[in-house]
Amino acid sequence: MTTAKVPTNGPSETVTPGIIQTTYDIIRPHIRKTPVIEVSPDDFAQGISTRQPLTFKLEFMQHGGSFKARGATSSILTREGAKAGVVAASGGNHGVAVAYAARKAGVPANIFVPSISSPAKMKQIKSLGANLNVAGDRYADALAASESFMETSNAISIHAYDQDETLAGQGTVALEFSQQCDVDTMLVATGGGGLIGGMAAYLQGRTKLVSVEPEAAPTLHAALAAGKPVDAPGGGVAADSLAPRQVGQKMYPFAAAYVAEAVLVSDEAIISAQQQLWNTMRVVLEPGGAAAFAALTSGAYRPEPDERVGILLCGANSHAVNFD
């Protein structure tokens, strides 16, 4: 567990609750308002300490199967030069989101992914009409390849998490979630940090925000411990969605100021959470999409008996899932 401290320079004023509201007004016609559902904690096999119903936000029902459609749509609709085309590096879900948003806007897209991306995500990117490029074994390799491509292209780059427009788009998750329910705590899976950074920028401590990361890819956990973004390991079952080399420079001040805790979960806990979500709710999620719930089922996060907990379920681009 890591407790956040407010950095001396403070979060950027370029992503504020007001900007996130304006962004939501712009992208709302192009995204889905994903539903929430309350489920008794007693429905799950392992004991969960709160007596209050759990509130799940089903963001995996978003276009492209993840929250990333929000940030991609924000970037394309609010930035100059997008009509010339867009370029993105992605572990998979961001690439799917950019391909979707580009198709909706009628602009060409070149997507760079590492070889660890799931075949399901690669197939979806191609089906949306984008040019798919496989480069290297990790997200950092795909990012480097996309940057090389940009040197000879007029297209604009849409970063998976380290961009103001992306943060503002992802922050609309918190806006929506807050309107739909009243919870004390929100559990959110973290990779590069665009989602939790945007949510932190919107909530600003009004709701307790807890980051959940795989033990094999502790990017924000390591950054909070070091006081700045630092290189972290990048392995585990959720490596294609939650294992960048570092969290973003732009999101870090928001996380340091407003993320209350950063907890780690094992691969085994993530797989168990996937299984329990299927057994109880008939929901199939990729590992990264189930990581936030794994914090509850594994005990990595233990809520108070009357604590109302919200869990963001995001990432439905599964491949070869086999639940008995």
Q: Would you give an account of this structure?
A:
The protein is α/β, with parallel strands linked by helices and 324 residues long. It has two domains: 2-65 and 163-313, Rossmann fold (3-Layer(aba) Sandwich), CATH 3.40.50; 68-157, Rossmann fold, CATH 3.40.50.1100. It has helices at residues 17-27, 68-78, 93-105, 119-127, 139-150, 164-180, 194-203, 219-226, 239-242, 252-258, 267-281, 287-298; strands at 2-3, 36-39, 54-58, 86-89, 109-113, 131-134, 156-157, 185-189, 208-214, 261-265, 309-313. Strands 1-10-9-8-11-3-2 form a seven-stranded mixed beta sheet, with helices on both faces. Strand 5, helix 4 and strand 6 form a beta-alpha-beta unit. Helix 1 crosses helix 6 (164-180) and helix 3 (93-105) packs parallel to helix 4 (119-127). The two termini are 33 Å apart. 57% of the residues are buried.
